[in-house]
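Here is the promised in-class demo. Please do not try to memorize the tokens; focus on the logic of going from shape to residues.
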């Protein structure tokens, strides 16, 4: 697979990699891996939230306001 970057992004990546003593392609692969993991965690969290809603496990807007108020007082 090839990824094409704008000259500006390529320069940013090269500069950052150089500052950290890394090869630009290795840094890009690490960053992409981190992004993909974060996206997978986000999708799982959304799915868990949807499942909670289907079970009726949620707070109303008013209940959230009460909880926030309690947190701010402590």
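The designed amino acids, position by position:
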């Amino acid at each position: 697979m090839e990824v094409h970057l704008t000259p500006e992004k390529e320069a940013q990546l090269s500069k950052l990699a150089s500052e950290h003593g890394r090869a630009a392609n290795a840094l890009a692969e690490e960053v992409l891996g981190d992004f993909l993991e974060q996206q997978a965690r986000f999708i799982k969290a959304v799915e868990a939230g949807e499942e909670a809603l289907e079970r009726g496990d949620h707070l109303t807007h008013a209940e959230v306001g009460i909880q926030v108020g309690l947190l701010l007082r402590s």
